[in-house]
Amino acid sequence: MLLIRIGVISIGTLLAFAATGLPIDKMTLIIGSLGVGVGLGLQSVVNNLVSGIMLAFEKPFKIGDYIEIGDEAGRIKEIGIRSSKLSTSEGADIIIPNGDLLSKHVINWTLSNSQKRSELILKINSGKKLNEVKTVFLNIMDMNENIEKNPKPEVLMNHFSGSDAEYRLLYWTYIDQEDQVRSELIVAVEDELKKSGYRA
Questions:
Q1: Taking the model in full, what pTM does it have?
Q2: What CATH number has the domain spanning 115-196?
Q3: What is the C-alpha separation between 129 and 149, in angstroms, rounded?
């Protein structure tokens, strides 16, 4: 659709010049002069227009992809000629110039798939029973239906001091379910630790 819009605008502009009845050589001079003026006075606009064309051909992302650019993150809602719209999880629509989408570092979380590896760090007073607590965490993640079974969830020791141990829970889930799964794990861990006699 973006390429069609660009094509229609370009053809319309040429037809408008042709309708004036000016000779081709004079039209070329006029278009050249306008191009110089536009290039000097509207550099950012031209940059965004050219960037929009490049985005249409390169396709680094498509509508519906979840991306991060700078401090902003969300799903691509619209890819326009001059700018694109990013829809955030808070419900806001952010208008981003196409030039920024090409010049800045963009992370596309859904280019190849919609899964993301997430991490939850927990500090537990487990005494010396490190492996027992590790097994508890693995069982909790195995029982969660929103956590992928392949790759398998992992529990790694992050820090140990006295009777306090810090664990890293690593697991894969769909990016739209990341916050929900984190909440479910925290609740499940709290319940299971109370049953087992450990303190978070």
A1: 0.67
A2: 3.30.70.100
A3: 26
